[in-house]
């Protein structure tokens, strides 16, 4: 959440006044979450929030209840996601590794300087009465200095390996936190994050952005007739066809239950319909066999609804239009793709 602790009182007052003035001008209800959004906007610490609101204002978008809630949930509500934690820790590990390297480099430099000093001592002691003893002492000191440097270098190698293993574990944990365990596609959280970023980019660039939602036809029948294991097998098949049917840079995700979603940045409605239709036909042509017995189950089909993003449209509104198109596909006999009329 936004904190005022690190702001000077006069600056906080000025920012608050400006935020309230903007809220009044744009007819934004004066609620605590809304004030938090507009305070953060005026403060300017979130570049993504400022960019989004600037685009919405330039498009004369009305900041209604739904849009204000979307802004708050997207940019200011504390989620505590594993991905954010992993990213933070990963940055800390970088800092630790840099510190270790600097310590070793400094120690080696000190050792080299010390060795040079000892060499000078050696040159001086050569004129002494017992030069052999002086040189032995010098050699011993140089050996100890070299051993210290070697030990520090070994510690660096060990620390680097441990940090590398830990970072790899964190990256794997973050990947698991963003992946649906059953289908291997992006999960709901990763999908929402990707789509919101794609919406901002589309508004900024003016490029198209489209989404298609697919649902397995008569999915309950598979579970009731053949059991949940076959239902899971069907979902994995549909997920595989979806992933293989979209383009590089697109995202395939599990939206929920037997519903999957494809998000296509840069694609207009017509292109997205073609891709959704390609996925549909690929699924319909697949042969599904029960793994335990080899029994041929029959055809699996999906219905798909497609919608193109409208600048300033909320996440919920875009998905709702997609879902409405999907419903019309179901009503039209299933196993078809229908685009949004809106």
UniProtKB/TrEMBL annotation:
Coiled-coil positions: 135-176
Coiled coil keyword on record: yes
InterPro entries: Diguanylate_Cyclase, GGDEF_dom, Nucleotide_cyclase, Rev_trsase/Diguanyl_cyclase
PROSITE patterns xrefs: GGDEF
Keyword Amino-acid biosynthesis: no
Entry EC no(s): 2.7.7.65
Full protein name: diguanylate cyclase
